[in-house]
User: Fold this.
Amino acid sequence: MAHGILTGKTGIITGALDEHSIAWKTALLAKEEGAQFILTNAPVALRMGPAKELAEQTGAQLLPADLTSLEDINKLYDAAAEQFGQIDFVLHSIGMSPNVRKDRAYTELNYDWYHKTLDVSAVSLHKMLQTAMDRDLIREWGSVVGLTYIAAQQVFPRYSDMTDAKSLLESIARTYGYFYGVKKKVRVNTISQSPTPTTAGQGVGGFDRMITFAERMSPLGNASAQECAEYIISLFSDYTRKVTMQNLYHDGGFSKMGVTDPLLDVMSREWAPGEEFFPQGWDPITGAPDKK
Ligand SMILES: NC(=O)c1ccc[n+]([C@@H]2O[C@H](COP(=O)([O-])OP(=O)(O)OC[C@H]3O[C@@H](n4cnc5c(N)ncnc54)[C@H](O)[C@@H]3O)[C@@H](O)[C@H]2O)c1
Assistant:
């Protein structure tokens, strides 16, 4: 049920690829809550994906922008300034790692791709913030939200170089949050979301096992994309005006857990005498039974 908590607010929502995307759910809810916004995604995503439907449904302008490009960011902001003057919120909901896509383990990175991962998934937030502050695009008490994952704090071996991208993203949110806060009273936060079945999420090796593990480790269960959208809307609203520079866990409690009884039960089965804990031929780099 909508409460109108974004009535009169305007913004930019990035990264709505398809109906599973966290940004897609956020756009639908932002509309319900009274906001107007521009939708944007990488040109290739707009050509191939169904974002036009979302634009029609929400009455939003849909613009292509590669958010690693300052030129594209400026064009996007020109359009936002023309339509709204200043805006109240920005959702940074983008991520991409060529190393993850090509199944490169953290110890076998291609460094050109590594740069690309960091640029798309983290530095793009800095570019969006710096360009917005230069242009004074975001109104006082505005809110910028980025999306991250707990692999920034703890080791999840299959997350490859995205782990570094998320650490950088969180650092940018925290540090830029200081500067934007003192200069313009704009808040900047990241939400650390449960594993979620989206295109980006499912690209990570062993995703199905990860999501099951997280579900069993979280007292409230995994947070869905819809629930993430609801949390994002609260951060865009006036009810969270003094929340800034935070990395906010939205994970059903996963981040505070050590272990749960059902998982201990699984681990405590009878081991045959001399049985190795790790399966035969297990490869610590790829996590797979001997691929090489
Ligand atoms: N799905 C998960 O398990 C999970 C968990 C925690 C955090 N996140 C984060 O949530 C955010 C949204 O991802 P999602 O899960 O909704 O997946 P998604 O695949 O639906 O969205 C990722 C988006 O990034 C866009 N993108 C990639 N490169 C771009 C570029 N150069 N310029 C502009 N856009 C670009 C894609 O087109 C896509 O729309 C990402 O930052 C992701 O890392 C996802």
